[in-house]
Design the sequence.
């Protein structure tokens, strides 16, 4: 069974995505265990502070190293972790291949940043991998972590019954996007399904689908 421990100062963000759809299904079937840990429980002082001003000046607040170290120490005292991941805008761009690699792990920690970021010493000493889901900024790493978890969970055996559906997903075949798909009705407001898909000629249909698979290129239109 794959276990994922997520560390966040706003754990309630995960309630909706983890209480619905395939993630909830996978948890109910015992395929995956997901635990969300409130970093504030490891905060400093009566107010359980987890952040402070950055040395050297500048705007924004920074997550301190002590709460993260204490949380990680507790988790690491209970089990070994294959990966200790930090969701970061300057991390390695997440991919379908890496999602596939991660499901072969047994235990994973995901740390979600907030504010201006986290103390660099956390990244240098406690983290084994840094992941980005794109070249843009969110208020924190929670939504990005949920994206990573969702992409992993759907690949786990027993989550999606139709295995062929997964094998034909975009990016499952390296660098390719899945071809266009259609369903009933055959014609709607004058817009018709391509005749080849209605022909019943399996080889010609397969050839058409293969040709329509688009080789992925990173777009920069935005």
Sequence:
């Amino acid at each position: 069974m794959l276990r994922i421990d997520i560390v966040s100062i706003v754990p309630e963000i995960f309630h909706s995505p983890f209480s619905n759809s395939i993630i909830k299904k996978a948890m109910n079937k015992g395929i995956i265990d997901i635990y969300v840990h409130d970093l504030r429980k490891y905060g400093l002082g009566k107010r359980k502070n987890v952040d402070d001003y950055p040395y050297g000046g500048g705007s924004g607040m920074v997550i301190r190293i002590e709460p993260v170290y204490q949380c990680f120490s507790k988790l690491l005292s209970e089990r070994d972790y294959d990966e200790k991941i930090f969701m970061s805008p300057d991390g390695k761009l997440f991919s379908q291949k890496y999602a596939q690699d991660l499901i072969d792990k047994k235990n994973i920690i995901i740390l979600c940043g907030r504010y201006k970021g986290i103390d660099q010493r956390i990244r240098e000493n406690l983290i084994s991998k840094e992941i980005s889901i794109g070249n843009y900024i969110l208020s924190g790493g929670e939504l990005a972590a949920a994206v990573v978890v969702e992409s992993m969970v759907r690949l786990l055996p027993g989550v999606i019954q139709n295995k062929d559906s997964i094998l034909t997903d975009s990016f499952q075949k390296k660098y390719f996007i899945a071809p266009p798909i259609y369903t009933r009705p055959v014609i709607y407001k004058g817009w018709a399904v391509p005749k080849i898909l209605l022909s019943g000629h399996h080889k010609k249909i397969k050839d058409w689908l293969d040709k329509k698979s688009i080789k992925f290129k990173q777009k920069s239109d935005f």
Notes: The chain has eight helices and twelve strands. The mean pLDDT is 91. The first strand starts at residue 2 and ends at 8. The helical segments are 15-18, 21-28, 65-78, 96-102, 120-125, 142-153, 163-167, 202-212.
